[in-house]
Amino acid sequence: MFKKFRKNLLQLFLIIFFLYFLILVFLYFYQRNLLYHPNENNYSGDKISVEIKKVKITTKDNIELLGWYHEKNLKDHKTLIFFHGNAGSLENRIHKLNHFKDMNINFLIIAWRGFSGNSGKPTERGLYEDGKSAINWLTKKGVDEKNLILYGESLGTGIATHLAQNKNYAGIILETPFTSMVNAAKTFYPYIPVRLLLKDKFENYKKIKNINSPILVMHGEVDQIVPFSMGKKIYEIANEPKYSYFTKYDNHMMEFDERLVYALKSFIESLN
Prior knowledge:
Layout: H1 2-35, E1 53-58, E2 64-70, E3 78-83, H2 94-97, E4 105-110, H3 124-140, E5 148-153, H4 155-164, E6 171-175, H5 181-188, H6 194-197, H7 204-207, E7 215-220, H8 228-237, E8 242-247, H9 258-270
Parallel strand pairs: 3-4, 3-5, 5-6, 6-7, 7-8
Antiparallel strand pairs: 1-2, 2-4
């Protein structure tokens, strides 16, 4: 009787182990489909109310990126480059871009490889190259490093943080930043060895220490995707000068209301 029980227990253990192993294999090979969502659409039909020009930016590995560019005055105003998050198209950010028309800035927003009809597949290394290519495109138009603002939204904070290291940019804006993709993934997969499996780690908490440009960190306390504690941690370890816009009611998609827009505008004006 005991031997039969032990045999059944062993078989159950082997089945559980085998299923767990299959889950790990699936997550390893399918992980980028879980991380990047180019076809997700929360576009609400907003109409762009600021004048933009659609541009093509070519990366070193010969991928053409779609960009929307607004030029107000390159000489007199700062230029903001917007790095969007892990889901959706450029149209999904129209409600944010429309607020820039009331600010004295030029701006460029790019779609990552694999997003908004661009060729290629998104990876951490590839997105760094996309961001760098966009900065180079602006540099060729005459934008000095000291007049450039990097704006990272969610996943985009990983690219902004990486590219801002040891540079002299005018400012860095981080909307709903995470400490690392490993830590963020652990909140969804606590029983998975994420650190061993994850290919794209985006270790913001290490890189933020290498940034000496003014930083604005924005995050809502009820964020259900990136815990608010991560945004708070990024703010705490960031170098001065640093500023925060923390709210009690914002989820991951922060509300671009009058208060947030005022915080953005005040930060940008402080850089002049």
